[in-house]
Amino acid sequence: MNYTAERLRGCKLWGAYVAIYAPSPNPMHRVNLVKKRRVSADHQFTTEAEAVAEAGEAAVKLVERRQRRYVFHP
Question: Which of 9, 25, 32, 45 has the most CB atoms less than 10 A away?
Answer without folding.
Answer: 45
